[in-house]
Every structure is written in structure tokens, then in C-alpha cells.
Amino acid sequence: MGTPGTSTRRPREIGSFIGGTWRDDAPGGRLTSVDPARGEPVAEALLADAGLFAEACRTAQAAQRAWAAVPAPVRGRMIEQIGRLVEANKEALAALVTREIGKPVTESRGEVQEVIDTCAFFAGEGRRLYGQTVPSEMPDKQLFTFRVPVGVAAIVTAGNFPVAVPSWYLVPALLCGNAVVWKPAEYTPAIAEAFTELFVHAGLPAGVLGTVLADGPTAFDGLSTALAAGLVDKIGFTGSSAVGMRIGELAGRHLQSPCLELGGKNPLVVMPDADLDLAVEGALFSGFGTAGQRCTSLGTVIVDASVHDEFLRRFDTAVRSAVIGDPTREDVLYGPMISQRFLASFEKHLGLIGPHHVLHGSTGTGRITAANPRRGFAGDAEAGLYAHPTIVSGVRGDDEIARTETFGPIVGVAAFETFDEAIALANDHGYGLSAAIYTETPAHAFRFRERVSAGMVSVNNSTSGAEAHLPFGGNGRSGNGSRQSGIWVLDQFTRWQSMNWDYAGRLQKAQTDTAVLPGDPGFRLP
Q1: Each residue's pLDDT tens digit, 268-294
Q2: Active-site residue 330, yes or no?
Q3: How far apart are CA 519 and CA 61, in angstroms?
Q4: How far is CA 205 from the centre of its chain?
Q5: What DSSP state is assigned to residue 10?
Q6: Which listed CATH number (3.90.1520.10, 3.40.309.10, 1.10.760.10, 1.10.3720.10) goes with 266-459?
Q7: Dist CA 358 CA 394 (whole Å)
Q8: What is the phi/psi pair of residue 512, to 5°?
Q9: Which end of the chain is more exposed for a tag (fewer CB within 10 A), N or C?
Q10: CATH class of the domain whose range is 18-263+480-496
């Protein structure tokens, strides 16, 4: 198959989409996306600079008012049309996701289904952007509340979920009457183009959605420029906690509250009464699905000491027997790392393994190669960016590996003696995205929910997995408390406006002209 960059076929060029037109200039340079399973070029991104990003925001601002004037139920019908078009193209879009980022095709299909589900949910919300009528304390006066769009939303998303996560932002933002400038991962230009085209061909007016291909620092500079010019009213960001903090600071300087969905170090607690086979199944999917490249990936399994050794034995067996390799196969647990950058980061995190740790799960660590083989491997090790699954037992709460988001196929295992110790291990890393507990005792489940810091809790299920009608988001280093999905995300893309209508024919002053009904406070029963 060769190595990246050796193909003689020139990849197709893809630029930014602004004002209904694909641009063919590359002021920010060029970047070739590569199939991480085979090392073949997929597409060449024509990258924008900060000025082009700001131009996209200005174009969106010019289109937003007309879009907001479209009745909300009609905007909901547009969302329904997007969902139907995505559904009609499900297999093609899933195959493209698998090709450009190496996600197993079964997971890619699930990701596209998440887009379809999101559209199905929000199509109806176009008829439910409810305000309220509120009784006044004065006669001949009515009070109302309304949801109004924020304006222009700048959305920056990562490449590990290149269509599902963007849909969590784009769909509700557009439904609420906002224009959107979307900055996808620069290493997924083919996916970004396809996703944009689906929105456009569903009938979305020109200018309402812009897609800007740019690297992270350029996008940050473009955001700074656009905010200073008053062109952006809301930022949505999914990515690392470190970058999220910088975006939060930038937004704060402009008195904006961004929607931040950041990293995680997600715990899975195994109580002594847990179904161990079920817990192993959940840990296998949580820790190694998408090669551990999810914000909700399992970080540490926290196992009661009485069942620790047996759980570890079963977990090790399950991971060793899992099929890893070609992501087009239906039976693989995971495929390659997304790109060379992600592989290098994962290999760096292997340096967190200490002398008191014991490794399990594979016949090697690090990148899978002919010289470092994986027994039962089902891919092209020389062309693809594959990594061994790694289980690290003997993890303690003060270990760096217990406090760091490793973003790769590595899972720690720690033991606990008391429930308080389990909670400390689950919380003390400072993240708060997702958490799971395996138990047959309701009291354990409810006490875990009360005390764990995560924004999302699963009982007898994995740390990964989202549904379109349930709030998604975290706390602490995992986010600023904002939520995506379901009705809760509407608060991110609308602002409340109140109105009072006085038809008394005279000025009535609140708290001053309010009627008082006299009583007899001194009355006592005999």
C-alpha cells in the first residue's frame, strides 16, 4: 500500500464554503488528509486564514436576519429535510467517515444515525420554541416571554466525531434562527464538504451556513478578529480542555458565554455485586471503541478489591481476543488512530506508565508493526496507524496516568476497599464528563449518582453513548456546565426576551402601584 504521500493520484482540492460558494484560494496553506488505515490521500484542504474566517462570519451576519424571519415551524421543516437527505445518503457518508478518519464502519453508521436522530428530534422543536404568558401584579397588563436567536454562532468541532457532534450544534442553532460558521477539523475536508453539501441541498439559504477549513491557531485568531468586529454572538467548541480554557477566556472578554464540551477522564466503578461479564463488555467498548479517541472514553476502571483479580483476568482475555485492524470489516473493535498526530500523542502518554504498573491486553505496546506485532491483527501494519490496546493495572489515585486524558487505546485499572475510596478515585482528577457504575444494588447506583462529579452517569452501561434527546456535557475540566442535545441545548442558541403590555391607559409602576388586600393579622382562635 505504501506510506502516506507516495500515491501518484492527486487528491481533490476542497476549500471553504462562504456565501453559498466553495472557495478555491488557500491563504492559510494546504493540508492533505490521509486514510489512516491505508496511507492513501483522501483530499487536499485549502486552508483559510484569519481574514477569511472573519469574512465568513460577516457573510453569515448579513444572512441571519432573513433566516430568523422564517417562521420557526418552517425552519423545523428544513431540519426535517436535512435529516431525510442524510438518511438517504447514510451508507455513502458512513463510508467516507471510515475512509478519512479510520472509524470502524459499524461505528460510522451509528454516528450518521445520530445525525438523523438529531434532525428528527429538532424538526418538531420548530413548533415548540415556547415562551410563556405571565400574570402581572397590576390590572390591564400582560407579561410575555420569547425565545430569540442569538445571531451568528461560530462552531469549532473535533474530528473524532466529524458529523455527529457538529449536528449537535448546527441543527439546533439553525432551527433557532441563527446563522452558523462551522470550523471542522482541518484534517477531515472530504467529510466537511459532504456534510455541508447535504445541508445546502436540503434547501438551506445561501449564507446561513458557512464552512471554514482552518487549523486551530488560525481559527482562534479569526474568532478574535470576528468578536472584536461584533460578527459573532455565540461560540460552540468541542475539543481539548486546554484549548477550551483559552476560548472561554476569549469569549469572556466579549461578555459571551461559550458552549464548551471538553475532555474527560471517565471512571467505571465495578461493585462487588456487579455482573462481571457485563462490566467487561462495557469496559471493552468504553475504553477501546474508536481506539479510545472519544471524550467519553473510559479512563480508569475502579474495581472492588474482592473482585479485582477476576475482573482483570476477564478484561485481559476480552481485549486480547478482540479483532483490531481494517475499519471496513464489520467485526473489528477498533481501527487505526485518526492521524499521525494522534498516534504520536498516544505514544507519548505511554510514558506515564510507571514501574509499579503491570501491562495487559496485547502482545506489545505502542504502534503495531511487523517488528512489534499484535496476535490476531487484521490490518495493514506498515501502511496504517494502528496501536496496541493497553490495560494498565496497579493504578493509584496520585498517578499521573489517573489524572491525564490519554485519548487512545489505554485503560487503567485501580482497586478500592471502600465506597468513599471509589468516589475519590472517580472524582479527584478534576474532569466531570461521564461516569458509569456496575452494580445490582439500587442504593449503590443512587449514592454514586449523588456524589460523582460527572454530568452524565450510566448504571450497568458504558461511559460512551449519547441519545439525541438527552443532555450531553460535563463539569470541571470537562466543560462550563453548558449542555448539548435535547431541549436543553436551546438555551445555548436562544436568548430570553421579556415584554410587558400595559393597556390601562395610565402609567402603572411596578412595586409601587400594586393593590393591597388588607387583612387582620392580629386575629387568633379562641
Answers
A1: 999 999 999 999 999 999 999 999 999
A2: no
A3: 57
A4: 26
A5: P
A6: 3.40.309.10
A7: 6
A8: -115, -50
A9: C
A10: alpha beta
What residues are paired with 494 via a beta bridge? 149
Judged by phi (left if over 0) then psi (alpha if -120 to 50, else beta), residue 53 lies in alpha
- pLDDT tens digits for range 206-225: 999 999 999 999 999 999 99
Per-residue burial over 159-192, b = 16 or more CB atoms within 10 Å of its CB, e = otherwise: bbbbbbbbbbbbbbbbbbbbbbbbbbbbbbbbbb
Q: What is the pLDDT of residues 35-69, one digit of tens each?
A: 999 999 999 999 999 999 999 999 999 999 999 99
Task: List, for residues 78-95, the tens digit of each pLDDT value.
Answer: 999 999 999 999 999 999
Cell triple for 411? 485503560
What's the Cα-to-Cα distance from 383 to each of 7, 44, 293, 316, 440, rounded to whole Å? 12, 19, 20, 27, 45
CA atoms within 13 Å, Cβ hemisphere of 413: 28
Going by C-alpha positions, the residue among 497, 489, 458, 496 that lies closest to residue 472 is: 489
What's 319's DSSP letter? H
Residue 401 and residue 422 in contact, taking contact as beta carbons nearer than 8 Å: no
Q: Are 317 and 284 in contact (CB under 8 A)?
A: no
Query: Cell numbers at residue 455, please?
Result: 454530568
Under 8 Å between Cβ of 273 and 487: no
Here the cell at position 231 is 460578527
